Amino acid sequence: MALIVQKFGGTSVADAGRIREVAGHIAWTRQNGDEVVVVVSAMGKTTDELVRMAEDVSSVMPARELDMLLTAGERITMSLLCMALAELGVEAESFTGSQAGIITDTTHTKAKIVEVRATRLTEALSRGVVPVVAGFQGVSTTRDITTLGRGGSDTTAVALAAALAADRCEIYTDVSGVFTADPRVVPSARRLRQVSFEEMLEIAATGGRVLALRSVEFARNHHVPVHVRSSFTWEPGTWVTEEDLSMEQPIVSAVTSDVSGAKVTITGVPDRPGVAAVVFRALADNAVNLDMIVQNTSVEGMTDISFTVGRTELGAARAVAESLAAEIGAREVLVDEGIAQVSIVGAGMKTHPGVTAMMFETLAKQNINIEMISTSPIRISCVVRASSVDDAVRSLHEAFGLGG
Ligand code: ADP
Ligand code: ASP
Ligand code: MG
């Protein structure tokens, strides 16, 4: 008998029919003799609709209240799913994040899980009851309701799997696994049978939203095998696991893209020691997460500093940059929202020279200009115009021979 955490994403529970089908799958898993803990997302686009409702009444949207509102989405699903399970004769009980023992820090809208006290879930399991947990939420160390950032139900699922020492965590979604590229952008993308935690971290961090980044960090740190699969076909999908060193590593496993960023440039920055430190300290103190950073070679003692940030943090980044520019005597602050990032990820590139050259040549052939570059041992990312990012993904996918 295995203990399995099964997480169902928004499309998987979008309406009554889907919820009944998911209940059927849970009942079937139990009939097979396995124990199940279920994690659910909000139905369909509910979270987006709740955000829109908040925007309609307020430009301020206090983060504490936004969190309280957004957690309602997952609560609807959890109770409906328990009712659908009751209909099938399966005893189930719903738990909010707080009731499930998901303790977070106090950072509203992107809280981090600091501890999982899953005693109520283990107690339910011992009574033969299926616990159904609202994903994406927890309770802070100061007892306020928090959310874990968009896509955070994946993180709830993997964190519970780790805390309960589950045998595996199954992430059910609207595609049949992790693909060599977003199948909606590249129709010929191929499903990967296995992907390592390291590669999946890079894929998730660069726009492959099929798994939330934090969930992959959790899975790697706590050695939780994750199976990403479809709740529409129920076929076996992609295993995200420890690196299998016996297998030859593909040079490039996946191509990803991210259109959620923006570029901020501070021009005419005096080029003297300590100035960059002042800039990035101020951004850090205002909780602005940076991605890429480029500093131009200085001309006549002046330089330009550019960095990219998520668009949700653009307002804060711009405000900090503008007040700093005045303070350090820089010329001006420019904001560019028309950028996107395209990345290639693959463990094999560590040992294969020439991958960068091939990426740049491919983009050049498409007449796509590269504006910024960043790399890790197993990833190369380029900032390009947002309007050409899908072409960039498709041409790289083909150039590296990833198609089916
Ligand atoms: P859920 O609501 O189930 O959490 P998400 O929308 O968060 O689903 O994630 C699934 C989506 O991720 C897919 O519909 C697909 O368009 C997108 N996606 C992006 N990159 C990839 C990839 N490399 N492999 C699979 N899906 C991807
Ligand atoms: N409902 C939340 C969101 O849309 C969390 C999730 O689905 O994982 O971001
Ligand atoms: Mg998701």
Structure description:
By secondary structure, the protein is α/β, with parallel strands linked by helices. The protein contains eleven helices and 20 strands. The protein has helices at 16-31, 46-57, 63-87, 119-126, 153-163, 197-205, 213-222, 275-285, 314-328, 355-365, 389-399, and strands spanning 3-8, 35-40, 92-95, 102-104, 113-116, 130-134, 137-140, 145-147, 168-173, 194-196, 226-230, 238-241, 254-258, 261-270, 290-295, 302-310, 332-336, 339-345, 372-376, 379-385. The strands form four sheets. An eight-stranded mixed β-sheet has the order 3-6-2-1-9-11-12-10, sandwiched between helices. A four-stranded mixed β-sheet has the order 5-4-7-8. The longest helix has 25 residues, at 63-87. The two termini are 36 Å apart. The chain binds adenosine-5'-diphosphate, aspartic acid and magnesium ion. Residues 9, 151, 154, 209 line the site of magnesium ion (MG).
